[in-house]
Amino acid sequence: xxxxxxxxxxxxxxxxxxxxxxxxxxxxxxxxxxxxxxxxxxxxxxxxxxxxxxxxxxxxxxxxxxxxxxxxxxxxxxxxxxxxxxxxxxxxxxxxxxxxxxxxxxxxxxxxxxxxxxxxxxxxxxxxxxxxxxxxxxxxxxxxxxxxxxxxxxxxxxxxxxxxxxxxxxxxxxxxxxxxxxxxxxxxxxxxxxxxxxxxxxxxxxxxxxxxxxxxxxxxxxxxxxxxxxxxxxxxxxxxxxxxxxxxxxxxxxxxxxxxxxxxxxxxxxxxxxxxxxxxxxxxxxxxxxxxxxxxxxxxxxxxxxxxxxxxxxxxxxxxxxxxxxxxxxxxxxxxxxxxxxxxxx
Length: 346
Known about the structure:
Number of strands: 9
Number of domains: 2
Distance between the termini: 21 Å
Helix content: 40-55%
Strand content: 5-15%
CATH topology of the largest domain: Rossmann fold
Strand order of the largest sheet: 2-1-3-4-9
CATH class of the largest domain: Alpha Beta
Radius of gyration: 20 Å
Structural class: alpha/beta
CATH architecture of the largest domain: 3-Layer(aba) Sandwich
């Protein structure tokens, strides 16, 4: 395959107090979320000056990717666009098109299969191609979901080892792997062949197993969820991390592993570093939260490896993965039919 640019595609976040409500309206557009609920969520951002850390984290990741590409003598510029805040996907497409780029390979900052991590980004790209009028001139492809790629697993293995070392004086330690909750119907639709939790839950369980194997521990562990929102009557994946912490019996050491996230954005620093830590303290449990991959050397190198496997059309048999579910298949391209991509579906 021939590509002439990389697009770092992410969620976006506010960068000042005046941005918070407009950003949340972007996030919830079409969902009928009442204004008072937005104000409740806005408190999380206002507590941090109205600034989400995610944009700076993406700037840092973009710079790290550029450095790794340069180190390997790969001449591909990296552009950055967001779903919900500046710079938007439309901004990124207009800029790369003005620079003469036509065939784009995207890195989406979501490691797992779900509507928000796959389907919604596909819709976002379609909308951006239409809004910019570039559908016939720009093609967008994306790397596969990388939940079980060694570059994504390695930072968590390192973090869990460090956390367990920090909790050596605990009489009983539990490891909680945590990710964003989604409606159970959405989870099932992500891959019904995997059961009620779909591919989404199966992938997270596979990552937990891979991390435990990498650490070499048989400590008690569980998969829990955070950041539930929406109609209380709608079933979402459970248990919530705070309920799970309160239900621990005889545990005085807790390792929180945010395997659902690639960086320490607002839902990590609020839901985990604030609320979950408070719950642990209320239950006399000493908790250590493991870092997300961020710009960890192994993660950045792994993303470049994922770019190269798509560029070089590496066969599945040669694609690294650390679970029986992988390697997850490539996605079809969107936009200009410059050259048909050979893709598989699952």
